[in-house]
Amino acid sequence: MKHTPVAIPRIQDPFAGQDDRRAIFWERLAYAASADILPSGYGHHRGEEGYGQWANSEKVTVGKRRRGHEMKVTLSKGIWEPRVKAWIMAVDGLSQMRLS
What we know:
Blueprint lengths: L18 H16 L22 E6 L6 E6 L2 H23 L1
Antiparallel strand pairs: 1-2
């Protein structure tokens, strides 16, 4: 949770003006989700680098820098794991479409 910010890309829609490719992407993503297809290579399978290294809680500084206090924020696996899986499926699907 407390990590270096990631630069946000300027292009918001990789399928701008390509409604047919957008439809294919969403169709493939829906299929992957319904079949619970989780690609490897994203650190979410046993044996992959980074597997099991997610903490359920982190300390976050709240308030002004010098007068702020640390607060423990907990996010259970039941909340974050479905989001991680959806992200993996979407990123992999987008990557596959860009390769084709």
